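seq/struct pair 1
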Amino acid sequence: MEERVSLIGIIVENIDSTDQLNALLHEYGRYIIGRMGIPYPKKEVNIISIALDAPLDVINTLSGKIGQLEGISSKVVCSKA
């Protein structure tokens, strides 16, 4: 399957779910180009961006698993090619 460059945007509102989130990111680590985390104490959230180079089904699976974690939401943006 064709690989795409993508970005997963993640908002963490429940800090107790970060261990599960980190375990997922470790599991998919071979596809991760880089990641950036920004704490935002004023709103009590953390903002994380994950850059990936992976097949579309892998990207969607990871994002779906992240979105199922309590207090964590995610969205994906993919390159066209």
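seq/struct pair 2
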Amino acid sequence: MDLKAFVRDVYDFPKPGIVFKDVTPMLKEPQAFKQCVLQMSVLLEDIDFDVMIAPEARGFIFAAPLAFHLGKSLVPVRKPGKLPYKTKSVEYDLEYGTATLHMHEDAIEEGDRVLIVDDILATGGTMKAIAGMIEECGGLVAGIVCLAELGFLNPREKLSGYDVRTLISY
């Protein structure tokens, strides 16, 4: 199944000049979403990991069914003020501004092998920031998997040294 057919371009979102890759058409088509999750799980077959971590909100969409399917733990990474327990935070640059993410301070333990899951890999800033939080907790980044990659933004330069896998490239 051509999963690229279920990702649409939205121009000038969230600000002028940005072409946003919208995954919601895939979610509307159950067979496409199912194929996406199954294909992502195949990408992970040779990665040894204990825990999945995903940033809100679209990362949750893909990580939750993957974690369920593979029988793995799932750690949500959220915007400030959204998690109820003590958190660690990281501020980082986006292709169109800055952002801050939080995770529970006890979410990753020393020696955990962690897989980062998201929908779109753009500049690599979000993944790099999350990887930093994982490593600060003593965890190891086992890999990064995303539905799609915006290769023209060169995210792999920022993520050199990490195993990065995607289903779709733009």
